[in-house]
Amino acid sequence: MADPYTTEANLIKASDRETLIKLTADNNEGKIVTEVITWAISRADNIIDAHCRGRYPADMSTANIPELIVDISTTLSLFELYKKRLTLTLPESLNKSYKLAIKMLENIQSGKLTPWESTDEPTILLSNKTSSSKTFDSDLWDTYDR
Q: Which of 47, 84, 97, 111 has the fewest CB atoms nearer than 10 Å to its CB?
């Protein structure tokens, strides 16, 4: 499995330690439960991969992950943690950030937003067709009234 796009440290920066304890600790242990954080990050990264698949490499190296993708992963991970804790109220700012993150992923998917640096080289399109494998050869076309 590829390395995650975000980290527990990023989640603490985006939220705070006490909130993450509330979101992850089932038995009020008073500490962040790393397994729950890992679960939320994995879910968030799966959403990102689903939007980027086909447009970008499936195994994107985390050494080259743009800050935008890290931010999106952090936002989606926090959202997943709040979804898990239905008794906690989702902050409006996180709800707005979540909607913006999804919109950015849709724009990445459609090619309107490019978080990775462009190579400025055109995409090479290959075809498995040859001139002899045409469906309609010139003799067939000649039978039609032009």
A: 111
Q: What is the rounded distance in angstroms from the CA atom of residue 105 to the CA atom of residue 107?
A: 5
**Cα–Cα distance list, 61 to 4, 12, 40, 106, 143 (Å):** 10, 23, 20, 21, 56
Structure tokens at 43: 């879910």
Q: What is the DSSP letter of 53?
A: B
pLDDT in tens, 116-127: 765 555 556 666
In the chain, domain spans: 8-120
Euclidean distance between CA atoms 44 and 51, whole angstroms: 11
CB of 88 closer than 8 Å to CB of 97? no
88 close to 22: Cβ distance less than 8 angstroms: yes
Query: Is the pLDDT assigned to residue 78 strictly greater than 90?
Result: yes
* Amino acid letter, residue 119: T
